[in-house]
Amino acid sequence: xxxxxxxSLITRMVLFQLTxxxxxxIALLLFFGVKQAFAGLIGGLIWLLPNxxxxxxxxxxxxxxxxxxxxxxxxxxxxxxxxxxxxxFLIAIIFFRVDFLVVVTVYLILTLASGFxxxxxxxxxxREN
Length: 129
Known about the structure:
The protein is an all-alpha fold. Helix content is 89%, strand content 0%.
């Protein structure tokens, strides 16, 4: 039951963030052009994919783990998220030749927006209970 509620929360947050990425992409397209819109979408995906992977991985942590083992797995998943993000940045820059400033700006905007999304989802979860 609890796992399903958390999966639903993760899905809602990802959909919110994906919608926000698309809105940023549309705004960049309208104001700056296709090249910047593509870079913005790439920056959004670089932000979204590692975060989604980490959230799903944390959801699958075993409840019976000792606190030290749980913390170790959380740190490993966080380190993997950083490596995953860096790899996606390198792939985007080398293979897609995107505008790095746009990619990083969208990435940072989404980082800020995720804080708001988390706060909203926390309030929604409290209202559901």
